[in-house]
Structures are given as C-alpha cells and as structure tokens.
Amino acid sequence: MVKRERWRQDFSGWFNDVLQEADIMDTRYPVKGLYVWRPYGMKLRNLVFSILKQLHESSGHQEVLFPLLIPETLFQKEAEHIRGFGGQVYWVTHGGHQKLDVKLALRPTSETSMYPMFALWIRTHADLPIKVYQVVNVFRYETKMTKPLIRLREVTTFKEAHTAHATAEEAEAQVREAIKIYRKFYDELGVPYIVSKRPPWDTFAGAVYSIAFDTVTPDGKALQIGTIHNLGQNFAKVYGLKYEAVDGKHHHVYQTCYGISERAVAATIMAHGDDAGLCLPPDVAPIQVVIVPIPFKEKETPVENVAAQVKEELTSTGLRAHLDDRDLRPGNKFYHWERRGVPLRIEIGPKDVEKDQVTAVRRDTGERLTIARKSMKKQVGEILKQITDHLRERAKRSFEALVNSAVDLKSARELLKKQGGIIRVPWCGRESCGKLIAEKAEAEMLGEEIGAGPQPEAKCPICSDPATVNALLAKTY
Amino acid sequence: MVKRERWRQDFSGWFNDVLQEADIMDTRYPVKGLYVWRPYGMKLRNLVFSILKQLHESSGHQEVLFPLLIPETLFQKEAEHIRGFGGQVYWVTHGGHQKLDVKLALRPTSETSMYPMFALWIRTHADLPIKVYQVVNVFRYETKMTKPLIRLREVTTFKEAHTAHATAEEAEAQVREAIKIYRKFYDELGVPYIVSKRPPWDTFAGAVYSIAFDTVTPDGKALQIGTIHNLGQNFAKVYGLKYEAVDGKHHHVYQTCYGISERAVAATIMAHGDDAGLCLPPDVAPIQVVIVPIPFKEKETPVENVAAQVKEELTSTGLRAHLDDRDLRPGNKFYHWERRGVPLRIEIGPKDVEKDQVTAVRRDTGERLTIARKSMKKQVGEILKQITDHLRERAKRSFEALVNSAVDLKSARELLKKQGGIIRVPWCGRESCGKLIAEKAEAEMLGEEIGAGPQPEAKCPICSDPATVNALLAKTY
Predict the structure, then answer these.
(1) Rounded mean pLDDT of A271-288?
(2) What is the pLDDT of residues B167-193, one digit of tens each?
(3) What is the phi/psi pair of residue A191, to 5°?
(4) Same domain assignment for residues B257 and B221
(5) CA atoms in the 13 A half-sphere facing the CB of A270
(6) Could you tell me if A324 and A438 lie in one domain?
C-alpha cells in the first residue's frame, strides 16, 4: 500500500513536485501567477472539463464565447461589483503606440460583458430562460502569494454559467440545479466537498447570496472549488434586462451565475495523490492502462507481439491504453507511469505469454493480479471500476476525518490548530455573532452548512440563543 | 436549385445577415472588432476546430496552453518580430490601482511566450523534436475596418502550432507536414485554396520564409486562411534554444510555426452558402438532419410517434439529428432550418406514415426524395455523403472560375477589375520585379505559387528574363 505521509505533512512541496514530475504544469514562466500547461496536464484538464461541459449541455445550457475585453464604462456600472473587483482588475490602456480613449478591463468574470448583450437578446417571456456557459481565461491581479492551479493571475480555465429568468422562484430553482450539477461533477471526480451559504460579508460582489463548494487540502485548509450566486435583479436593473410578460407589462429578469475554475484539477490531484505522486481516477486519466513488455533475451518477439495485441484489444473497447515500447528498463517505466498516476499497469513477460495471461498492477493499492487473456477486457473494466470506487472512498474518509463538530469556540480553535480541517459550530445566524465566532475561533467562516442543521438544543456560542444553522469554520487557501 | 446571386453581388451584406440569422455571432458588442459567439455558431466553431485538433494530434503534436500575458522585456527581444507586431499590440499597464513595473503585452501570437520556455525544455537531441499546439485568443490592435470572423481585434480562436528541430532539413520537412495537414483540413471542409510562398516583403516578422493558404471570397477577393513559417534559427538565437548533439557540441535549434484562426469558419460559411443563407457540409453541421413532423388533424399522434422514432434511429447511428416538435407551422420550421444550413430535412406526414416512408429534402439542391423507412439509415448516410461531395465540387468550380492566368500585366489588371479573383502571371522571382508586377497590376502579390510552375518559355513581364515561378496577384481582404 502506498503511503500518504509526505502528501499530508509537506503538502505544498508534494503538490509542486507532482505538477512537475507528472508533466502537468511548468511553473517557471517569468511572470508571477502565470503558468504553462504541459501536454499531460492539458489532457487531464480537458478530460475534467469535458465532464463539466457535458453536465451543462445535458441540462440545457448552451455554450457561448464572449470577448475578454470590457470597456471601463460598462464594467463600472454595477457599483457593488466594481467595489468587489476594482482592486484586482488588469487594465489595457494602450493599443499599438496609441492611448485608448476608453480603457479596457481584462474580464475578472463576465457579468459586465454578458449582461448588456442579454439585454439585447431578451424581449418577451418567450426569450427566457437564458442558460449559457463559456470556458475562458479570466484575470485577477492577486496581491497574495500565487500558487499554480489554485491562486492565479490568469485563471486559464474558468467555466462560468450565466442565466436569466422570469421569476425569483425560477432563479431559486436554477441555484438548486447548479448545486446538483456541481455535486454530480465532484462526485464523478471522487472529490469530497461540503456545501455552504457564504456569510453576507463574503458574498459575491453584486449577488443577493452565494453558495460555495469547499474541499479540504491534505494539510487541513479549506479550498473553495465552486461558487453559485443568486444575483436577484441587481444586474438586471443596472443593464436594463427587461422582458414583456404575458400581460404586456415589463419586468426585470432574475439572474444567477456559477463558476468552477482549474481548481477542479487541483482538487482531483490532491484528493487522490499519495507519496508516489499523482494517482488519477480512471475517468479523467489521460492514460488509463499502460502496457509494459518485460522481454527476456531471445523471447523479445512474442512478448512484444502480445503487448501490441493487448494494447489493440483494450483500445478497441474504448479505453485509453498506451504501450510503452521505449528502449528503457521496465523499472524505469514503472516509475515513470506511477508518477503520472496511470491507474493500471499491465506487465507482459515470457511467463505471461506462455500461460496466456497478463499481470496487472493497481496504482492505488500496489496490488498485483494475474488475469487470463481471454477474460482480460472484462476484468480490466472491472478493476478500473474498483479503482474509481476505492479512490472515492479513500478521499471521502480522509475528508471526513477533517470535518468535525465542536460545541464551543475554545475546542473549535484547538481542533483547528491541531489538525485543521473544517469545524461545525452552532450559530444563531446573526451577522454580528458570526463575525465574533470566526474571530474567536481564529478562523475564517465559510458560511452556513447546506443540507445539515444544528443539533437540537444547540446554542450560539456568542449570544446563547438557540442555534438555527451550523457555521463552518476553517483556515482557508 | 437555390441561387447564389446576392451571395456574389452583395457578399458583405449576405455574410453579415448569415451571421445574424443563423445565430452564429452577435456583432453588437460595444467595442470595435470584438464579437460574441452565439450557441449555434459556437457548435460550428467547435466542430471545425475539432477536425483541426485531430489532425494535429494524429501527427504527433501535443496540446499545451501558455499564458496570454507577455512581459515587454521578453516580447521585445526579437527585433524583426517587434517591428512587425509592435504597432498592433495591446498593452496592460495597470493591475488594480497600481502601475505595473513591466508592462504586459496581450499575445498577438505566442513565439515570445513559448520559446523562452522551450529553452528550458531542450537539453539534448533526445528532447527534439518539440511539436506543440494551442487554441487560444490572440489580440491585434487593427486600425483597418474590422469584420466578424475575418478581421478582429480579439481573434477568439487561434490554433497555433510551434516546433523545434535539430536540423534545417527536419524543419523543412515540418513545413511540408504542416502544408499537408492544412490541405487535409480544408479538403475536409470543402474549402478551396491555393498555396503560395509569400514574397519577402510580406514574410512573417522573424521568419526565413512564409507559406500561405488563400481562398477567394464570393466577391472575388483573396482571403488568407492559414500561414506556415520557417523560422530558421532566428528565434532560437535570441531566446537561447540550444541542444547538445550526439558529439557533445551545442547547436541552436531550427523552428517552424503555423496558424489557422476562425477565418476557417468564415471560409466554410462563404464557400458553401447561397441566397437562402448558410449551407453547411455535414461533417461540421451542428445539426445534420432535422426532422419536421407535418401533422394533419386527427392524425397527429402517429406522425409524432414516427417522427420521434426516426430521430432515435438516426441518432443511434451517430448522426446529429434534431426533432423540431415546436408548435409552429411546418413552413416556418423549414425556413428556420434552411437559414441555419442544416444539410438534410426529413418531413413526416400522414401519407409518409401510411406508406412507411419519409420525405427527405436536400438543403444544397432543394431536391425532394422519397425514402423507404426500412432503408432510411443507410440512405440518409449516402445522401449526406452526396451533399458533402456536391458542396466540395460546387465550391471548387466557383473558385476555379476565379483563378486565372495572364501573360501580361494589362490583361491581369483588367481581369482583376472585371471579376477579381487570383491571377497568375509569370515572374523571374526577383524582388524588384515582383514589386513592380504588383504595382502595375494594381493588386497585392500573394506570392509564388507552390505546386505549379510557369508555362515553358514564359517571361517575366518586367525584365523579360525567363520566368521561374508563377506570381499570384489579387485584391485582398
């Protein structure tokens, strides 16, 4: 069984090594907060985001693509929004050798480029709902420490969905649909999460309220991996998004938006990795099965032939199989693919050829299995399924060990100091109490937990009134 | 047969109408040269570029993703390159409320962001060749008139490939491979083209020479739809791209790069369209077959059931089929899908149900066909193939009518005035003669034709020396 010690104790070092050794990213680009996706990482990214895109398509979202550049005049219309993002916006001021008349923002998110166009698209109730999404690069002038895939100045891969509805109820229903989509997405990746409603002081700039998905890093910090915002009519009023109802009257629309960035890739890497490096769920592994021939002298040809056949057989079932026929020692190849998190390795030596079998080695457990050639296709499929389940379960166990409850703030603070993670404490729901809870626990408040309430009789640790919700506390990335 | 009169005589108006009516782009974004991809256009774009990506993957190119922002210090290292692009670069000068220490260019193309990283990736000959590509947004501060899909300030969809090789011969071979890939790509789209080597005064900034693909718009102008550059060692020397050869000596690498933008989508639209609007080749049509039920009163149910079955049957064969069951008159539906270029419409009325048949109508020719249900799957496949072939042939004929030869510059000039297109004239190959040829023909010189030489005994119309190549002349976009 592969260990997860360095993974836990030196997560930051472990993570950077994985990005490099598994050919995910090059972190040496000479501008702070900008990184280069390398080929293997790019394949992983595309597989992860194709699941997310598919979930959007199948629930009636349509893909669009809006410009990166937003004129200052449009960008600054929504006052809350500019207050929230103003300090982080990159500004284009010159084109060629000329100063621009109106400076242009690199989108930090696309409400202000999209909604003026929505205003042109919406005439009557028949034009609603609008449900669109795009996968684009967005920019934030981060002043904090940047970190590949996690805190970026160019978020290279931002899936942002934007919707418009006739009624507040439909917008509420859309928030629920978005939560469902994000649950499915992270369930498929085997990434554990907790869902909460962000507190008022941490709501998206311009939103009525914000829902967030958080996971926990191996070193016990909360990491936000998805957000969903109910925008109410705030943007609709600023950008004039009105529709004519059946009765001939004009109303502003209700809107939602929700986004997931390449942190989804980071979360997948950290949820399943171990001290041997990357360990990928088969669904998103660029190579699901690697075949390594182990030729002995004078028996090269049959081994190589069988290896090629095995590759063909597996590929024909739709698997991403790769034959490593490089002129290297098998041990070097094992190491190479282990670091890249390939879920299953198939070794083929002279004995395997003789006995009409293959030897399979699981990346997640290290377990060796002997499989008869004639049942190989079926069994490989089953093993990959077992790997998926095992990774999901293991990640869930690690996560659940780090999500705990406390009834008072002293024990919350001590738990956070000792092992980090996310701590539930009962909360009356008042903003003033919430701020004090976070302060006294020396942590951030993620928000109130969605889908679970406080224990009966639980009291707010500040005012001692009955608790109405669980507050989630954590140190955050 | 649908006509192509407006398509030819008012191409610009025709093109803008198609973009709007077929839901390709919204051209009302309030910044010059920036446009919005709408859902149907986005699907078309993705299908077109998935062919191009597949051609790169299957020839050993690996997808990567580099940052958009390039520090001025890096960008300005290659002197020719900055001379070529300097006047067109957008500059980010501020992050939040701060002025940046080093201003950042929005990439107009990625040589200057990629090659410094290549320098880190290349150590020995074993690291070569490098063959990577990315599909990204690039920016040019165009001062000319902008036009959706054709002349943009944000090119939203730029496939750029970049390679590095040990020898000049390998770089030459890579140029040939790139030409082959681009030929296959445009052949699959049924877009006709001519390939030429751009003249020295129109070579890519920093390249040794440039190869270009041009097509002809319906109104007779040449449109560049792909370029391939042999960069020699120019960038390698500036950015220090060196490898250690087998003999232990260090050499600079040889490089190539080649790009295709969303003009590929424009070229597809214009090659096949007609006066009824968009007309798409089945390979890239977001909907390949639309099924329209024609219910008569009291016979609604069987018609609707059969329509749903037909949709299922076609979808199960891997076709992109859509059942239009909206509550609209069939005529409105016909018009709607005709404008969107759906290659084949299947109508199902009570008579069709009775006779166990369907009625198919081709978008390209308007031809109506009666097809027995039991052979439908097979026949629909065949008809789509015929449509593909017919569109390719028709586009080719239109193109060839516009590519002509002239032996003297007066007839070249007159032909260009009369009908536009591309005119071949014999050329000795000297730069000074070439410039005069273009000037006297009152046209641009695309370059010397690749794959075809001048007639025997042909003479350069300027110096009367024997012609060595065909110069291609045209008015250009």
Answers:
(1) 98
(2) 999 999 999 999 999 999 999 999 999
(3) -95, 120
(4) yes
(5) 31
(6) no
| Minimum-distance CB partner of A137 among B68, B95, B98 | B68
**Is B456 inside any structural domain?**
yes
**Mean of the per-residue pLDDT values of chain B:** 96
**Tell me, what's the pLDDT at A114?**
98
Answer yes or no: do A156 and B67 touch at CB < 8 A: yes
Element (H, E) at A117: helix A111-121
A144 & A41 share domain: yes
**Domain containing residue A370: CATH number:** 3.40.50.800
The whole-angstrom separation of Cα A365 and Cα A185 is 25
| Domain boundary residue, one of A211, A242, A272 | A272
pLDDT at site B409: 95
What is the rounded distance in angstroms from the CA atom of residue B61 to the CA atom of residue A42?
13
B104 touches chain A (CB under 8 A): yes
**Looking at residue A261, what DSSP letter applies?**
-
Complex prediction ipTM? 0.96
pLDDT value at A441 more than 80: yes
Give dist(CA B74, CA B67) in Å, integer.
13
The whole-angstrom separation of Cα A251 and Cα A253 is 6
Domain CATH for B258: 3.30.930.10
SS (H, E, C) A353-370: HHCCEEEEEECCCCCEEE
Instruction: Tell me the whole-structure pTM to 2 decimals.
Output: 0.97
What is the residue range of B345's domain? Answer: 287-383
- Residue A144, chain B, CB below 8 Å: the answer is no
In a domain, A351, yes or no: yes
Cβ within 8 Å of A, B 52-91: 62-69, 71, 74, 86-91
Does A211 lie in the same domain as A89?
yes
Q: Kindly state the average pLDDT of the residues B90-102.
A: 95
- Domain membership of residue B388 (yes or no) is no
Q: What is the largest distance, in Å, between two alpha-carbon atoms of chain B?
A: 86
- Whether residues B189 and B66 fall in one domain: yes
At position B83, the amino acid (one-letter code) is: R
A348 and A463 together in one domain: no
A116 & A195 share domain: yes
- Note whether A229 and A145 are same-domain residues: yes
Give the pLDDT confidence of A175-227 residue by residue, as tens digits.
999 999 999 999 999 999 999 999 999 999 899 999 999 999 999 999 999 99
pLDDT range class, residue A84, cuts 50, 70, 90 = confident
Domain of residue A453, CATH code: 3.30.110.30
- Whether B193 is covered by a domain: the verdict is yes
What is the distance between the alpha carbons of residues B377 and B309, in angstroms, rounded to a whole number? 12
Q: What is the mean pLDDT of residues A396-417?
A: 95
Question: Looking up tokens 């390709």, which residue turns up?
Answer: B24
Domain count across chain A: 3
Contact B55/B264 with Cβ under 8 angstroms? no
Is B11 touching A (CB cutoff 8 A)?
Answer: no
